[in-house]
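[job 4471] stage=fold_predict status=RUNNING
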Amino acid sequence: MSFKLTEFYSLNIPLFVPSAKYFKTNGNFGSDRTSTTAPYCDNDPDLWWKMPSHPSSPHSYNPNAEYAEDPEAEMFWLQFSDIYDWPHIQYFDDGSDLNRKLQTADFLAVHKSMKAQNKIRKHELLQQ
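[job 4471] inference complete, writing structure tokens
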């Protein structure tokens, strides 16, 4: 995920992000999700496939696979993204769902919940 989202979350700014269902329906999380695509290493279009998983990896999905090549792999890795792990993120399944949620969201309540969560995160971080 973009570091910008981490900053927005730390600032308690309510975030509305596409749900996993949205990505499964529409495909493609973005070309900068893996290290084998633009803007990183895009000289070889098959590089994602040529880069094997670590031999002792317990995961059967290639972390460098793009949605077009292996939708199941990308959906598997998507679940580990921060935005699907952090509490108080608002998810939408399509444009009309986003519009409805933007019209009905209690932004102040979400902001306060995020603020409380960030205090917990800060405390946990400083305890390490």
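[job 4471] summary: The mean pLDDT is 83.
[job 4471] exit 0
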